[in-house]
Here is the input.
Amino acid sequence: MTVARPETRQPLPAVDVTLPEWAAVRKVRLRVEVVRSGTGRLATFAGAAAAAVGLFTGDFSGAALLATAALSCVGVGALRLWKPDGHQRLTATVLYLVPGASLAALLVAERIVPGIHPGEALALLVWTVGTLVARPARLARRLLSPPPAPKPALPAVVPQVVCDHPAARWWAHTVAVKDGPGPDTALQDIERTGETAMRAIIRSTIPGKPVPNISVKDLSALMDVPEDHIHIGPVPGRGAGVRLLQVGQPDEDHSAATVWANHIAPEAMPRTTLTSVRSGRPAAGPDEEG
Here is the structure.
């Protein structure tokens, strides 16, 4: 006869479920907290009144002691039932019992010492003010509450690079960062205009938002370029979402048309334009063919 062993099932994994914070639940919690706070203050004033009466007569000291003990026990029981698995349970319980125990000690002292004693009046004043200000019961409830969950880490902001040009990558990681001179911007259409000169388009990475005011002084410090060699202006025919960046002094154009327009035409042939240039040896004339 073969006896099969019962299969051992693996325990199910624990699942943490977070209930949504509904507005109605939050409103009820706020109202409960208001009622609880008002009840605590009312009990404090009642205890102060009982101790004040005890300064003159001890007829009500027994009833006041019984009421203090009953309220303290009921409060501690409700506290432990409300948060049965909270941390720092012993500390919270002792803290919750401090007002009732100190009031009971004051009532017993008033019963033992006959007549009105200044020390008893001072102790009553200290107990009343200390309980109203420190509010040990509320502090005990907070001790039993679990610590707040850590805030989720914000995802790292990756700089936006619109092209693989080294200048665009440098701009994205140096200028376009949160605390940089030009946040939420990108560099594109980069063109070299000289040995140490370039021009490019600064574009806003937020649709519908203009390019922010970029400090030329900050760019000069980051690039180690004189301020008068950096110019930021509008792009002809475009809106405020793009700006034209010019860095350095562009090299002079030495093409034939430029040389003609700048050096020859003004002196020799005004109001003329060089349209084409032919290079090479001229063709042989009729006299040279024979």
